[in-house]
Amino acid sequence: MEDLQRIIRAHPFFAGLSDAFSELIGGCARNVVFAEGDHLFRQGEEADALYLLRSGQVALEITAPGRGTMTFLTLGPGDVVGVSWLVPPYRWSYDARVVEPTRAIAMDAHCLRRKCEDDPALGYELMKRFVPVLSQRLQAARLQMLDVYGPDG
Amino acid sequence: MDQMAEPRMAHPLVPRVAHVRRRWRDGPDVWTLEIEDGAGSGFMPGQFNMLTVFGVGEVPISLSGDPADGNRIRHTVRAVGPVTRALARLRPGDPLGLRGPFGTGWPTDALDGRDVVIVAGGLGLAPLRPAILQLLARRDRIGRLTLVYGARSPDQILFARQQDRWGRRSDIEVAVTVDHATSPWRGYVGVVTTLIPRAVSDPANTVALVCGPEIMMRFAAAALTDAGLPETAIHLSMERNMKCAVGLCGHCQFGADFLCRDGPVFRLDRIARRLALREI
Fold it and tell me: Cyclic nucleotide-binding domain spans which residues (chain A) (predicted)?
């Protein structure tokens, strides 16, 4: 458990997290390993975890009828995968496919949500870390939507 | 009589005739022309020429070849309008009109001892290619060298084979990302700005050269300043509708500057305020 807490604190997403909070969320964490081609999760499934990537590469994908599967973001070491666990109805809205063998810390969403409800200070700490990620991804999505390299770019 | 013996300077508004030597495709609708320019006198990376297809029109196109290649110059063109489509149709031996080189270049002579981050988007790699080649030719004089490149999709990556070759070298780091991809692509997907933080390790000693669509450059400049680079260390190549290329006609006016004469390469601190203005 102590080792998991050390890994969590060493991950860029939780850099500077206090001992008390890392002990709290450490109880929700477990080490996971995925092989190339595995899925962390698929669109429509319950968003029951978030993943702190330690190595490897994961592609976030959407499949559209007639257009096949489209990758819209790849994530690697130091990144966090999954924000749908924060927002009802807690369902993944895309697939997360492993492109390169991946090691991660998986954090149980039910456990995290319960601890955040019990300790609003922990909830606020997590929000301060997730909102910048959401903001960066929203900004990136806007740029992708603008299709800046297209003929009108 | 003595006056007659003086070599005549070519008038900057009068094209000289040059000939296409080779042409090849570098992407969907993107063609590179190798041109024999017998009257050429060299160029600085980042400069542009005015190319004329006789009977069709004239367009400004950046030089994309190696400055060390002498009179054998290259231009990389996306065929999107009447003149660029006509340029892309030229065959070896065909004549074209050529004026230039014009404009300011990348500050490659002022990079000794510095880390260099090159951020390119789409066709914006073409004006940066001469700078990369020049820096690689004197690689021992600069610090870490990184190319961060973004394209719309894997099939639209410019100079893909050359980027692969650069990526296999140990003296340049190459990170390529695309905005969208389908399954066979195993590289990065996401906007080019996401790769910038890991390309900057010593911001106080890093210089960035940026070229691409203007909105991409705005976000890249913001990511570079977020990474700790001062505005004075960020250089952008701007694009406007250049016509005369010598600062007379005003078509490419950008606030107080004419892009053809005072640019296209500007330091960010000179133009940062104007980048945020509409309709300029």
Answer: 13-114
- Mark out the alpha helices in B81-159 (DSSP H runs): 82-89, 125-137
Angstrom distance (rounded) from CA B193 to CA B149: 9
Alpha-carbon span B104 to B260, nearest angstrom: 8
CATH of B2-102, picked from 2.40.30.10, 1.10.645.10, 3.40.109.10, 1.10.3720.10, is 2.40.30.10
Nearest to B190 among A73, A99, A150 (CB): A73
**In chain B, domain spans:** 2-102, 108-275
- Give the pTM: 0.90
- Residues in A closer than 8 angstroms to B213, CB to CB, are 148-149, 153
Q: Report whether B211 belongs to an annotated binding site.
A: no
Determine which helix (DSSP H) or strand (DSSP E) holds B9, and give its type and residue range: none
Asked whether the beta carbons of B148 and B212 are under 8 A apart, the reply is no
Topology of A2-146 in CATH?
Jelly Rolls (2.60.120)
The interface pTM score, or ipTM, of the predicted complex is 0.86
CB contact under 8 A, A71 and B189: yes
Cβ contact, residue pair A140, B191, below 8 Å: yes
Which tens digits make up the pLDDT trace of B188-241? 999 999 999 999 999 999 999 999 999 999 999 999 999 999 999 999 999 888
Q: Return the residue in A57, A75, A149 with the most chain B beta carbons within 10 A, the one to mutate for interface testing.
A: A149
Which CATH class, in words, describes the domain spanning B108-275?
alpha beta
